[in-house]
Amino acid sequence: MKVVTFIATGAFILFSAFIMKEQPISLYETKWSLKKIYTGTGAEEVDTKAFIKFDAEKKRAGGNGSCNTFGGSLIVLNDSISISHIFSTKMYCEGVQKTEDNFFRQLEKVNRFEIKGSVLLLYHDTEVLLEFEAAGH
Questions:
Q1: What's the pTM value of the predicted model, to 2 decimals?
Q2: What phi, psi does 68 have (nearest 5°)?
Q3: Does residue 84 sit within a domain?
Q4: What is the pLDDT of residues 32-44, one digit of tens each?
Q5: Residue among 113, 128, 111, 108 nearest 36 (CA)
Q6: Core-most of 6, 26, 65, 115, by most CB within 10 Å?
């Protein structure tokens, strides 16, 4: 009887771990930390507090660009995404201003997204513009 209980418990733990691992990360319920900005000249690694969050109910996107808080209107349909009317506070921050400017410039071009594990990729058609990682992953 102990062997059967042990095997059943082990199977349950393995099955539970498999199910938990397979849960996709939501676009909406996640704080996405900016990791890379892709431009025509290559990829810029980002090591700032820049992030974005998406709110399905309010149809808004917002976060921090590295220095300033920002927001904008959000439209998502399947894998299409549009962030428009982007606004931000206007502080100048030495050392991160170029990163923030590039982030906002690329964000305005985004028209498609893809989530791969804990990574969010924002594209313009087939070109990756921004790469994020789910905070805490």
A1: 0.82
A2: -100, 150
A3: yes
A4: 999 999 998 899 9
A5: 128
A6: 65
pLDDT band per the 50, 70, 90 thresholds, residue 14: very low
Residue 61, in any domain of the structure: yes
Amino acid (1-letter code) at residue 64: N
Which CATH number does the domain housing residue 91 bear?
Answer: 2.40.128.270
Cβ proximity of 108 and 86 under 8 Å:
yes
Instruction: Tell me which residue range forms the domain holding 128.
Output: 25-134
Contacts of 123 (CB under 8 A, 6+ apart): 110, 111, 112, 113, 114, 129
Supply φ then ψ for residue 49, to 5 degrees: -90, 20
Per-residue pLDDT reduced to its tens digit, 48-60 = 999 999 999 999 9
